[in-house]
TrEMBL record:
Name of this protein: siroheme decarboxylase
Pathway: Porphyrin-containing compound metabolism
Main EC class the enzyme belongs to: lyase
Domain Siroheme decarboxylase AsnC-like ligand binding: 104-192
Highest taxon of source: Bacteria
EC number: 4.1.1.111
InterPro entries on file: AsnC_trans_reg2, HTH-Siroheme_Decarb, NirdL-like_HTH
GO MF, one annotated term: lyase activity
One matching Pfam family: NirdL-like_HTH
Catalytic activity: siroheme + 2 H(+) = 12,18-didecarboxysiroheme + 2 CO2
Keywords noted in UniProt: Lyase
Reported function: Involved in heme d1 biosynthesis. Catalyzes the decarboxylation of siroheme into didecarboxysiroheme.
Keyword Lyase: yes
Amino acid sequence: MHCKNSNSNNVVDIDSFNPKAKSPFSNKDTSISTTDTVKIDFILTEVDRALVVATQEGLPVSERPYQIVGEKIGISEDEVICRLEKMLERGVIRRIAVVPNHYRIGFKANGMTVWNVKDSDVKRLGRQIGELPYVSHCYQRPRHEPYWSYNLFAMVHGTERAQVEERAEKLKALLGDACLGSEILYSSKILKKTGMRLSKKDDNASESKKTEGK
């Protein structure tokens, strides 16, 4: 699959952007997330912005979602995929993933396991935990001593609490001597999570007219 470089007429193979870049079809981010600030060197074009606005509420439920998005904003399916790959590589988009309602598919016991892990081992062990099939999220976070000693968070899913606790014991064994303490925080309610949203240009124009009329 190929796409045109926006700065030239050359044809660029999308695999050449970054061989380690995640595909838009990936459904799990196995890397450990940190609070480090990352500088993003990327200029958002009008087409890129239209693509973000068209997909920020979710992809169409279809066998060819990228084709539908492309038709909506006037570009090809291949170009949609290429542009998303490039934004993923540069960090403009963090990831593209399926977000199921785990309660409806039977995973009603969901525990955020929090761990006090030696700083020298947290990144290495965090990556290993993030690759486990029953861990959906794995983050490194700062401690807040003396009230909060935990610096590694791993979301563990199970059909019942006993299963979550069994899996937490496996995490504890994996962490070994690097683990200095842990807890399991169970979720009690599903809250709708959304990231930053770009406003549509029509919305901006309407808001400007309202401001001018005051």
